[in-house]
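During the reporting period, our protein records have gained a C-alpha cell line. One record among many is quoted in full directly below:
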Amino acid sequence: MKGIYEGGFWSSILYPANGYYQTISRITYGIGLLFGLSKAPLVANIIAILIRCFFVMFVLSDRMKFIALKYRMLFVLYFLLMPNIAEGYVNVTNAHWYLSLYLLLVVISDDATTTSWKIHDFVLLVISSLSGPFVIFIAPCLILKRISQNRGLKNAIINIKAFDVVMALCCLIQIIAILTSADGSRSHAPLGASFSMLADVISYRVVGGSIFDNELISPMGSMTVLNICIFTLLTIVTLIFFVRQDWRFKSAVIFPVLMIGFALAKPMMSLTLPQWPALLIPGGGERYFIITNIAFFSLIIFICSKLDKHTRNLSILLPVALIVLMIPSYSIKGLPDVGYQEDVAKFETLPSGESMKIRINPNPWGVELTKK
C-alpha cells in the first residue's frame, strides 16, 4: 500500500519485493485506494474473500468433472474448515498461496473450450504467476500435461499453445526477479537443518497440522522417532502412487513438494535464530503449510477413492470424520483494534509532504506514509 500511495500504481507494480513480483497485492490496494485510505483494508479483504469463492466455484465446476462430485465436496469442506491458517486467512498479503493452488487446478483440469473460460484461465495465469514465485513449480506440471496429451515431447513442442508461452514468460520474469533481488531481502540466519528436523517439521506441521490445531498437538514436534516413521511412511506411499498414477497425480505431488522444498530452503522465520526449529513453534510460518496440508488431505481422499467399491463407500467416512475432528480447531482469534482508523483520520489532516507512522496489525507493526 505504501508504494502505491506514494509512488503511484504503475511505479509500484513494475518492481519486485522480497525477491519476487507481488501483483495481486499491488492490484488490490490500487483498487482499495480508489475508495480512500480508510476503506482500503476493507476492499482488500473483500477481494481476498472473492478469490476463495472463485476457487471453490472452480473446484465444483465441470472443468473438474474428472473427479467425482462427492470427493470435490469433501475437498471444498476441508478447504473451508482446515485449521492453522490464521496467518493466511482472507488477506491479500498471502493470497498468492491460494492463487497458486488455483492455477495448479487449472493446469490439471480439462482445457478451456469456451471464450469465457479461456479468458478466465489467462487472467488467472498472469495474476497468479506474477503474484509469487510458485509458477516456477507449476510449469513442470504443465510440461507433464502437454507431453501426456501429445504423446511425447516433440509433439508437445510442435503443438505448443498460447497458454504455455505466457506461462513460460511469467516463469522467466519471476526467475529474473529472484536472481536479481532476493538476496538482499531474505533472512541470512542459519537453517538449523537436519534429516530428523525435516521429519519433525513435515510430520508435525503437514500430517498432524492438516487435521489438528498446532497448539493442541505441539508435543508431536519433539517426538522425533515417531516423526521419522511417519515421514518415511508418507514418502513411501507417495512414491508408490507417483510411479503408478497418471500425470494429474504426479502434478499434484510435484507442486507441493517443490513448493515446500523452496520454502524450507529460504524460509523467513527469524533474522538471527535457526529457521527450521522455529517452524516447530505453534502458529509459526503457517503460510508455508497451506498448500502441503491441502495436498495431504487430498491424498487421503485419493486413497479412499482407489479402494474397491464396498470398502470405498465405507472408507469415505474417514475424511468425513477427520473434517468433523477439525471443527474445534476451526477458530481464529480476532485481531485487536490497533488504532488504524484513528491514525488515518489524523494523517488526512497533515499538510502535504509530512510523514506519519500508521499503526497496523499485527501490533506493533506500522507503515510510514508521506502525505501527498
